[in-house]
Each structure stands twice: as C-alpha cells, then as structure tokens.
Amino acid sequence: MVPDINPPGGRTIGLLKYLYRTSDIEAHIDPHIVAAYDPFIADPGRDPSATFTELAADLDQWVDALKYKAPAKHVWHCSVRTADTDRILSDEEWATVARRIVNATGIAPEGDEQACRWIAVRHAPDHIHLVATLVRADRTQPRRHKDATRAQAECREIEREFGLRQLKKGDGTAAKRPTSAERRKAERLGQEATSRELLREHVHRALAGAADETEFFDRLAAEGVRIKKRVAPSGDLLGYAIAIVGDRNADQEPIWYSGSKLAPDLSLPKIRERFKANGNAPEPPALMERFGESAPGRARRFAAEAVDTALTALASPDDEAVAAHLVGVGEVLDALTQTTLGRPHKELQDAARTFEHAVRSHIRGEQTQMYALRRAARQIVHSGPALGRGADGATTALVLDLLILTVIAAGHWHAAHHHGQQAEAARRTAMHLRTAYRAAAADPLADMRAYGERLTARTQQHHAQAFRSALPKLADRVQVEAGWPALTAVLDQAQRAGHDTTALLRKVSAQRELYSADSVSEVLVWRLYRLDLVPAKMPTAAPANQRTAAQDLHTVPPATLASTHGARSRQR
User: Of these four, 68, 307, 359, 420, which has the most CB atoms within 10 Å of its CB?
Assistant: First the structure.
C-alpha cells in the first residue's frame, strides 16, 4: 500500500472536479466519498443535488474565515494505492484506511474536534484520494511534520493487519515519486511516463560510460531534451536542469528539473564523482578478436568480464567497493538497454528502471572501483546497436547470464544491510533480466542445439562420457536438460580446437556452484563460451548420417580454426 502526498495546492474545487471526472479518464469509475470529517456531507457522486461548489465551500470554510491571512497553498492531497496483487478492499475498509492516514499525518487526529476538514474519494477499485484543507477550526494550521514518513509507517501497519502485500520500509534514498498532477499531465500529453521519470532515464542513458562532462552534455542533447546550465561569474559550471520539449507550465514556460530533483545521485557534483573513476587507471587487456564477431559483440564480451569481476566483488567485506560496483553495474545495464534491439529491449528497459533504486544507499561508494564497469558501458554505447542475431545475440545472452547472478547477489547484499526497498528492487530486476535473457539466448542456443543434435551418436556418447568423468554427480540431471545438445556442441568445438574437455568442465564448474541453476547445461554453455572456444557464429554440422565419428572428433572447420587461433593461451 503506497501513500503519495503531493505538494499543497491552491484550488479545492479544481481537485474535486478531477477526482469526480469520468468522461475522459477510463480509470475513473463510480467516484464517491467513502469517508469524511462529517458522515452526512453532501456527496456529488451519490446525491444528484450536491454540487462541487458547495462541497468545496464546505471544505474551505475555515480557510475562508481567515480571509487574507489564509495560506495560499491550503489543499492537502494524498492518494493511497494497493499493490496489483492485493485483493479489492471494500468501501468500509477504505474508510478505515482514510481515517487512520489522516490521524497518523496530523490532518485529523482521532478525537480532535478542532481538526481540519477532509474527505476520501474512491474512483477506482485500487485506490482512494484524501483531500483536506490546511486550516483547523481553531484557525491554526495542523502539525504535519514528516507527514509522508508517518503515512508510510501507518500503511505498513495496515498492510499487516489487512493481509495485504507488505512493502519494504524506505531509507530516503529513492528518487522522488511523480505527483498525481504529473501523472495526469503525462496522460494528457500521451507520454508513457511522467516528465520527471522520462528525464531521469535520459540522464542515465547519457551518463552510461561517459568520459567527462562534455561528452555527458553532448549525449544528453542528443537525447532531444532541453538543457539549461547554471554558470558562475567565473565561468565555472555550477549545475544543470533539463526539460521535456513541449512540457510547459500555465505561462507556457518549460518545466525544468535539476539533476538533484530527478534523483539524489544525478546532481552535477555526484556525476562528477563518477568521472573521477576514469582517473589514470590502466587500460584493460584487449580481448582477442573472433572470426565474424561484430563490434557490439566484442563490447559485450568485455562487459561480461567486468560484470564477472563485480560479481566476485559483491562478496567482499568492503562495503564501499560493493556500493561502487553496483553503480557501475547500473551503467552497464543502461548501456545495454539503449543498444540492444529486438525482443529483449522492453525487458531490459524495465530492468534498468527498476535497478535504478538498487544502486543507491547511504553507503558511499569508492568510485575508482567502478572503472572497468564504466569502461565496459562506454564500449557498449560506442560500439553501436546489437541486432540480436548470431554473435550479437550470443554475447548479449552471455552478459545477461552474468548480470542475473550479479543482481541476485546485490539483493542479498542489500538484504544483509537491511536495505529493504533496494533488495526488493534487485529481486524485481532479476525477474526482468531473466525474461530478457530468454529472448536473447533463444536463437544462439537453437543454433548450438541444432549443431549438437546433428553429431553422430558415437560423438554424442563420447562427450557424455567426458561430462560424466568431470561432473559425475550432475551427469544424470544435465543430460536430460533441453540445453544438453547445446552444451554438447560447445564441447565438440572445444575438442576440435585441441582442448581437454574434461579438464575444461572441471575448471568452469569450480567457478561457482551449479546446483541452484535452473539449467546447469546453459550455465556451462556460457562459462565455456567466455573462454573463446566457440566461434562467433556456430558452424553448421553436416547431418549425422553423412559423417563419420572420426570426422566429428578430429576435423576442424576453417572458420573454427580462425576463430580459435591462440585460444589455448587464453584458457583461464
């Protein structure tokens, strides 16, 4: 259950008209009052003779009594929404929720006869809107210090008592939630999200792997947003603000958001801390080029190395290093989102949006720790879009396979530090990444599977015996998995390049435990794939009835020879 308190407004009747409007907002169904300061208040949703003017005048009575001394922003507005998976509450239950929220926030403390006037309007099954005027009967203003925090705490208690989904307690590091007014405006403008949310994504995309401020602002301009820089008399840049083109206020002026208003870590000083991570760190080792591999594929292989290092670092007791690696992982995810086309794109976009909260906590990261990840993000962005076919699809699946493990580890780290909302964000990110992985891996695994299935029975039996020799406890499980033919194909390619497949299997299985994997065979495919044993594009195997076992085991296709040249020296 999420309470959302908006900044105070100045027109009671304007808000009422919106809450009761049904003509152009499909989500507004049967608007009516479920609770109010006065149980006999006239409800325009139930009484045909009641008017918005009369209801607004009723709520504004103590405000109007103050005349010129009345606060200009006197309308308090709070929506309270249940989770998608929650049951539908009755009007009586929503009335209880409303009374508890106005009590907890200081709007109308229980038993206080001088409290503010308020109503709760329900116009959809899953939420209500609380409207109050911020003048009490004794002509004073209510004590509502930290009303949002108190509303959140009360909702946690209501969730427990009502048997609803229990959300995690926040720690103040989340980005500011868009207001109801912002959401309504986004609907009118036909935007998929509010301007605040869209601008936050634009900044994240521009920041992913950017080398310095110049590149950051150039890429931000390329995103198509308005940019306003705050410059000191000395010429030094002090800050920035951005706006969506076409998003204007009543005076037809652009609506600007500073970086700090978008998210705590997007202010210019915080962004500059990331650029310091570039520093004078040494260049990472170059990856061997594979025959037929594209620049996006090579960039993703480099990113896989960086993400694997981050995954190891998440088990470190150095919390500052872990926090920095999480920021870097977020940049890699942002870079993948903007360069991965096809079926995985939407899930990657949702994953990046969700993980955005999991990178922030009160633990300050040691920025130099994220150098490799920022460089990986930069390579991904500058290598261009990956089409999702052939090597592009395989390397995308490779890095996503590692990102899933890394995000799960991030969730465990947050949970151990009692960062409830961040741990939940990591859990949901992993769900999106799993879906993206399945979309990215489908074609390359199908190619590998087709190759493996076309090997002779004798060759398949040979690789099965090698697997049983290396991992006897997993053999029965793995050899009935759907991914077994793909693993057979990779083992076949490795053997053709002169490798001892039994030794390779033992080596990659020792990297991390395998028993918890949904598909052990697929995990091993990608661990072996990282060793540069497989060509960028899997060669086509001749039908088994046209091949001999000797050909299968000893003949190396020219493309494979070119792609694995020097591979023995790269075993790791």
Answer: 307
Question: 280-301, pLDDT tens digit by residue?
Answer: 545 555 555 665 678 898 899 9
pLDDT tens track for 409-464: 999 999 999 888 899 999 999 999 999 999 999 999 999 999 999 999 999 999 99
Average pLDDT over residues 493-517: 91
Tell me: pLDDT of 364 over 80: no
pLDDT at 7 over 80: yes
Q: Are residues 319 and 468 in the same domain?
A: no
Residue at 171 is within a domain: no
Total structural domains in the chain? 4
What is the domain range of residue 404? 311-440
Which pTM was predicted? 0.71
134 with 263, same domain: the answer is no
Residue 445 lies in a domain: no
How far is residue 149 from each of residues 4, 146, 171, 172, 184, measured CA to CA in Å?
10, 5, 10, 9, 24
Comparing C-alpha atoms, which of 434, 516, 500 is closest to residue 467? 500
d(CA 176, CA 145): 18
pLDDT at position 172 is 65
Decide the pairing of beta strands 237-243 and 226-231.
Answer: antiparallel
Q: Are residues 462 and 541 in the same domain?
A: yes
pLDDT over 70, % of the chain: 88
**Do residues 383 and 343 both lie within one domain?**
yes
DSSP letter for each residue of 273-287: HHHHTTTTPPPPPPP
* Core vs surface per residue 84-123: b (16+ CB within 10 A) or e: eeeeebeeeebbbbbbbbbbbbbbbeeeeeebbbbbbbbb
Both structure tokens of 399: 């890095």
Sequence-distant (≥ 6) Cβ neighbours of residue 336 within 8 angstroms = 300, 303, 348, 352, 380, 396, 399, 400
Q: In terms of DSSP bridges, do strands 257-258 and 2-5 run parallel, antiparallel, or are they unpaired?
A: unpaired
Backbone angles phi, psi at 114, to 5 degrees: -100, 10
CB 337 within 8 A of CB 356: no
CA 168, chain centre distance (Å) = 16
Between CA 409 and CA 315 the distance in angstroms is: 8
* Contact assessment for residue 532 and residue 570, using Cβ atoms and an 8 Å cutoff: yes
The DSSP secondary structure of 337-359, one letter per residue, reads: HHHB-STTHHHHHHHHHHHHHHT
Q: Do 322 and 314 contact (CB within 8 A), yes or no? A: yes
- Contacts of 79 by beta carbon, 8 Å cutoff, 6+ apart: 3, 4, 6, 127, 128, 129, 130, 180
CATH assignment at residue 43:
3.30.930
